[in-house]
Structure formats: structure tokens, C-alpha cells
Amino acid sequence: MSGVPAAFSSESMQTEKRRAAANSLWAALAITGLKIFVGIATGSLGILSEAAHSALDLVAATITLYSVRVSDKPADADHQYGHSKVENFSAFIETGLLLVTCVVIVYEGIKRLFFHHVEIEPSLAAFLTLFFSMAVDFWRSRALGNIAAKYDSQALQADALHFSTDVWSSGVVALGLALVALGRRAHIPWLVKADPIAALFVAGVIVFVSTRLARRTIDALLDAAPIGARSKIIAALKSVEGLLEVDRVRIRRAGNRYFADVSIGLARNVTFQRSGQVADQVTSTVHRLLPNADVVVHSIPRAPSAENIFDRVRAVATRHNLNVHDVSVQDLHGHLHVEQHLEMDEKLPLKQAHDGVSMLEAEILHEVPEIASILTHIESEPATIEAGEQIQRDARLESRLKSVSSEFPEILDTHDIAVKRVNGRVYVSCHCTFPDEMPLSHVHDVSTALEARFKQEAPELFRVLIHPEPKTDNRR
Predict the structure, then answer these.
(1) Any idea what the Cα angle at residue 92 is, between residues 90 and 97, rounded to 5°?
(2) pLDDT per position as a tens digit, 91-138
(3) What DSSP string runs through 270-290?
């Protein structure tokens, strides 16, 4: 379930993979030619079957080299997932070639066992050829296996698997020739048949390897998910904060790359920005299990089980990209009545704004049947930057405002009073200190009452903005 480590550059990966595949090709060419020569010279079916096996290894090595070159090409407009599937396809072709070899070897082995005896001449050259082949196969199997494991290349893994079995099959053929030689010296007729029996054993080894390789390559071509990967990803995603559910996880592999599609359920009132943050956390979690995977995260809005009336009202507004605030709900004689403030573009004509509000209210009443009535206060959402000027400090106005704030025992201090004039209107803002433990709802009520008293004391004020601060943050 591991991908290619990010620390390896694409260029170094391509160079190492291609070098390993090319070395394997040259080794296969040399061994195949040597086995054919010795097999014909000795008449050994075991060696000839090994030659056939090596010839297919030569074809496989050629296909592997080609597939490695093609699979490393980047994605393009016609191959948007890249070209890595070529490695899987080449492994599939190798499987077919191996199975064809098995059919030929089994046919010739049965023929020599029961119908047509062929005289075998075990020679020193035959044994030297087999031992040399075993040494070369052992070397290139290890070399290919190391590069395949390093870069998770299925094509190189297939070659490494072939050559590791070649070591054992060559050993079995050498044993068969040795038994033939022993049978001649000891005058044991049945040992003469050891060579075709060894050839059949080689065919059995090829079938075993082909079956394993076929299962893996077919799974890759049919986009089968790695065993256990989906359940591990779902279990890991449970630790992602804000995730309500994992709706779907789909994984496919192409060469040494994984592609994961993850659908997640999020609370329907989360912001688009928060949704992106959760998606990034999901991607990082998948990368811990499938490094270098291409991850696509799809967010689905869901209604949380603990969603209250206020959340449900805001969710309907958010669905239409509208911002409601100051939502209040009153229970009058068992009937719920909602009041809310809604910001709309200041350039909208009243008729269009009112129609939009009426549609929103109707949808809220339909979706939240517990609500008996709803009243919306329409506010204009500023869309222009207004030019204004800062008014010099007005000690008299500041004194009047501080005197008003002293009427509220909850307010510990009033400071940073600023006055501005915008389009002929006077704006005032100030900071008020409250006790740390005071509930926010009470802070809001006091701030609203103070705003009203300010306007009562100074009617020229158009807007008052009060910024509440906790006592611990005010070191004055």
C-alpha cells in the first residue's frame, strides 16, 4: 500500500528503472542464446524448456523496458491519469507468454515420457550453462527486485519474480540431467526419464508464477483496490475534526501511482473556506497511508444530528448564499416565531429584495415546520467604500459618553472613543471593558442598551459601534 517516496526525483527514478530494465534485457539475450546452443547440442528437453523460458524472459524484458520508458511519461490531454497502466498491461502480456510456454513444455514432456524417447547426452557444458544461468538470474533478480521495491514498479516486480523462479527451475533441470547421467552409469532405466520430468516440473513452476502474476495484473487492470486499503483509510479519517461521515472511498492503481476519490459529509452550515481546510486534512490523512497518491475530495453537505432551530434557519439562507444574523426565536403559546436580520446588496430595488426574502421565508417554513411565522428585517449590505474624515478629539462629547456608560454597572471602562464624519453623518466608536466571565448574550444586551443611550444623549450620532473587551485584555 506504499507509493513512490516523494524524496526521489522523477528523473532519478526514470534513470534507475530504465538502467535496470536494460541490464536485464542484455542478460536475458546472452542466457537465451547459450541455453539454445547447449540444449540442441545435448538434446535435453529440460535445457530446451529452460531456453524457451529464457526466450520468453527475453521478450518480457523487452516489453518491460518499453513499458518503463512509456509509463514514466507525464499525463497529457489524452491520458489524464498518466501512462502508468502500461506497466500493468506489459505484466499481463508476460503472463500470457508464460502460459503459452507451459503448454508447449507439457506437450513435449508427455510426448517424450510416453510416446517418443529422445537420447539425452548430459555434458559438462550443459551443467556449466545451467550454473552460469542460475548465477546471472540470481544477480538480476536481486537488482530488479531492489529497484522495483524502491519505486513500486509492477513491471520490474514481474521481471524480478520471473528470474527468481528461473534460479530454482534451472536447478531442477540440472538435477534431472544429473539423474540421467547416474541412471546410465548405474544402469537404472527409469532414471533416464528424469529429464522430461524435470521439464514438467519447470512448467509447474511457470504455472504457479503465472497464476500469481495474472491475479495481480488483472486486479490492476480492473482497478481493484489494494486489500485492506479502503478500511484503513476510513478508520484513519475518523480522527479528522469536523468530519460527519465518510460517504465513499474509491481507490485505483496505475503503475506505481494510486488515485483516491473520497466523498465526505460535512455540516451544511460550514463555510467554503472551512470545507477546504477539512479537505486538506483528509488529503494529508490519505497520504500517510498512500504516499504520493493523487487524492480528490468531494464534500457533501449534511444536517448534523444535533442541529438546532437556529442552525436549520441559517442553513437554508446559506444554501442561497445569503447571510442572516441576529436570529431570535420566541415560543408564544406553544408556537415558534422567528425574527432575523438579512443582509442584501444595497443596490437592489426594494421589490426585488422583498421577493427574495419572501422566497427565503417560504423555504424556511417548509423545511422547518416547527416555525409558525417568520419576520425578516432587511439590511443593506454595503458594496461601496464611503469617503469620510476623522473628527478632532471632542473632549465634551467624550465626557458625555463616558458619563452615560457609567450608568451601566457591568461596564468597567470606556476608552478609545473615535468620531468620524461620512457623507454628513456622524459615526462614533469606542471600546468597553466587561468582566471576563460575563455571558456573551448579556454583553450584547448591555451594548445594545448603551448604543441607544448614546443616541439619546447625542441625537446627532448616526451610528454607534461598541467593541467589547474582557478585563484581562485591558491593561489600562
Answers:
(1) 95
(2) 677 677 667 767 777 776 677 666 655 455 556 666 777 777 777 777
(3) S-HHHHHHHHHHHHHHHHHHS
